[in-house]
Every structure is written in structure tokens, then in C-alpha cells.
Amino acid sequence: MEKKTAILMLQDGTTYKGTAIGAIGTTTGEICFNTSMTGYQEIYTDPSYYGQIIVNTVSHIGNYGTVHNENESAKPQINGLVVKSFSSVYSRNTAEGSLQDYLENANLVGIADIDTRELVRHIRQKGAMNAIITSEISDLDEIKKKLKATPDMEGLELSSVVCTKEPYSVGDPHAAVKVAVLDLGIKKSILDNFTSRGMLCKVFPSNTTFEQMKQWKPDGYFLSNGPGDPAVMDYAVETAKQILEADKPLFGICLGHQVISRAVGLSTYKMHHGHRGANHPVKNLISGRSEITSQNHGFAVDMDSIKKNDNIELTHINLNDDTVEGIKVLDKKAFSIQYHPEASPGPHDSRYLFTRFLELIQD
């Protein structure tokens, strides 16, 4: 079967020609790269990637197929996929199907056989930007026109698009500890880490108020990861403020960390090209230990705003670029982390944070 040509065009006009993978069609979104060596299925189904085109930096993608229980959400969340060498043949004997079939079933458009190393160098230099992949349009002017209509990630509120529409429970109904989870785009692995420690979770839609969650009488509150710009999420920031005012145990990961930070007066900003991969070194400033972490974020908390706030302790710092990776609110039972301690697959160096949250509730 003859391979179909696909085109990738970046916002600055840079254009690549390659081979179509997945569904035949056209897609747009913010292009970003992930440096993880494994776990492509977990990446594609992470709701934090909603609206983005992912470049996998590892050379071979698709070679171990797909398995249903490796999904982090009900379906792939990315807008498009860029890889170097794509394999529609898989070798893992537990695989349930090929990545090609998986992408086609999800109507996901992608491109292969391009120099992803050169592309990543370009993104690192020029910064995150919008892009378009098409395997059905050949006119470059028409492609450019469609790309121009794509909204920028900065200023986008996306949690309400990807979150659950109705509350649901996960875990032992008779568990001694109950955690109210505000779903901003949660990953399944996070809930697994709570329930494996004997916690019952009730997951609420992103726009649920503190008063509504409080009626369930939880012992602690959790703000999840998710996509979009925290600066336009006043509704979630207000919920975090009320949880803090009630002095309830509070934990946040990634977008949840950014929302909590804004609730205590810190500011956030759009990063040049973000942190995405399973190999980012972070130092725990409390223990002095370094952790290899999994990350996925294009926004971050401003370091200077922490230095000006006497009630906030910086607990974790990124060893690559000295950006904020974790904070603690000194007069409250609240802490948050920028990276992903639940990483699955990925390093498990940071899973102690779930235990720390449980201990905070039990104290």
C-alpha cells in the first residue's frame, strides 16, 4: 500500500513533508515535544495535552502497540502527532492492537518520517507555537490560512471541556479517608495512587464550588492536573481560596498547583517551550534529595512572586532551569507540586507525596 504524504507547518512558516499516520485529515494545535523514552499511550491520553500536537523525541513509536488499561483517560486527548520512525507492527505479546489502528479509531491525524531532532531544536529556540498537520490539503496557502485561525494556548480555559460532567466515586466505599477531587483534567494514575493508599475519592466537575463539595464531608481536597491557562480560571482559584480559608488539607498537582498558587497571591506565566518528559531533575529543598520526575506543563509559577510572599515556602526546584516545582502554604495544611508524582510509566521517586497528603489528613 502506497504511503500518503503529510505536511506539517509551524506558525512561523517552517514546513516539513513526511508520511501520513493515523487518520487522513487536517488538525491544528500548539506544538510541543515530550522526551519520554516509553509511555506514548499514557502521553496521548493525558487530558493535560488537550489541544496540543505532540512531538515524540524518541525515534521509534508504535513498536509495542496499545493496551486499554494504559489509558490515562477515556480517549486520546492530543490534537495531533509527530514522530520520526512509526511502526504499525508491534512485538509485545500482551498488546491488544496496533498504534495505527488506535489513532485511526480516535480520528487522530499524524505525520512520520521527518527529522524530529531538527524540529525539537527549532521549538527549543523559537518557543512553543501553533502548528498544522494535514494529509488531505496540498496547497500551502490554504494550509497557512487554516493555521492562522487556530487560537493561542495562552488565555484558553480548557478544564471545563475535558473534565467529568457528573460526579463519580473511585475506591472502597467504606474507606476511613475521603478525598474530594476537583477534576481539571485528571489522570487515572492519580486516582490509583489515592485508592491504593486506602482513600475513597469523589471526583467533581471543574466548576464545582467548595460548598457543593463540602456537603460530601470529605477529609481532604485535591486539585488535579489539566490543560489550559491558569490565569483565566478564576472559578477554580475561588474554590481553592475557600478550601484554604476553611483550613482543610489541600494538595495540588500541575494545573492544580498553579491554581493553588494563584489562590495565595502568586502569579503564573506562559513558558518559552515548557517541560514535557519523564527525565526532569528536581531538588526537594526540604530533604535535600534529588528526584527524577515526569512533567507536562507549558505554564509555571513565577519565582519572584514567591520571594515576595512570606507565607509561602518554596519546597522543590527544577535543576535544569531553576523554575518552581513545589510550594507549601505555611499557615495552612496545603502544598502543591508542579510535576507528576503518579507518572505511569515513569520514575517513582516522587510517589511519597501521596503518602504525605494522607499523613496531613490523618494528623
TrEMBL record:
HAMAP family referenced in this protein's UniProt entry, alphabetically: CPSase_S_chain
Provide the function of this protein: Small subunit of the glutamine-dependent carbamoyl phosphate synthetase (CPSase). CPSase catalyzes the formation of carbamoyl phosphate from the ammonia moiety of glutamine, carbonate, and phosphate donated by ATP, constituting the first step of 2 biosynthetic pathways, one leading to arginine and/or urea and the other to pyrimidine nucleotides. The small subunit (glutamine amidotransferase) binds and cleaves glutamine to supply the large subunit with the substrate ammonia.
Biological process GO annotation list? 'de novo' pyrimidine nucleobase biosynthetic process; 'de novo' UMP biosynthetic process; glutamine metabolic process; L-arginine biosynthetic process
Identify the residues that bind L-glutamine.
Answer: S48, G226, G228, L255, Q258, N296, G298, F299
Stored PROSITE patterns: GATASE_TYPE_1
Q: How does it assemble?
A: Composed of two chains; the small (or glutamine) chain promotes the hydrolysis of glutamine to ammonia, which is used by the large (or ammonia) chain to synthesize carbamoyl phosphate. Tetramer of heterodimers (alpha,beta)4.
Q: Which Pfam families match?
A: CPSase_sm_chain (PF00988), GATase (PF00117)
Reactions catalysed: L-glutamine + H2O = L-glutamate + NH4(+); hydrogencarbonate + L-glutamine + 2 ATP + H2O = carbamoyl phosphate + L-glutamate + 2 ADP + phosphate + 2 H(+)
- A GO molecular-function annotation: carbamoyl-phosphate synthase (glutamine-hydrolyzing) activity
The active site lies at C254, H340, E342
Q: Which UniProt keywords are listed?
A: Amino-acid biosynthesis, Arginine biosynthesis, ATP-binding, Glutamine amidotransferase, Ligase, Nucleotide-binding, Pyrimidine biosynthesis
Region annotation CPSase: residue ranges?
1-173
Return the EC number.
6.3.5.5
The record's family statement is: Belongs to the CarA family.
Protein name, per record: Carbamoyl phosphate synthase small chain
What pathway annotation does it carry? Amino-acid biosynthesis; L-arginine biosynthesis; carbamoyl phosphate from bicarbonate: step 1/1; Pyrimidine metabolism; UMP biosynthesis via de novo pathway; (S)-dihydroorotate from bicarbonate: step 1/3
Superkingdom of source: Bacteria
Enumerate the InterPro entries for this protein: Anth_synth/Amidotransfase, CarbamoylP_synth_ssu, CarbamoylP_synth_ssu_N, CarbP_synth_ssu_N_sf, Class_I_gatase-like, CPSase_GATase1, GATASE
Domain Carbamoyl-phosphate synthase small subunit N-terminal: from-to ranges? 4-134
Q: Which gene encodes it?
A: carA
Species this chain originates from: Flammeovirga pectinis
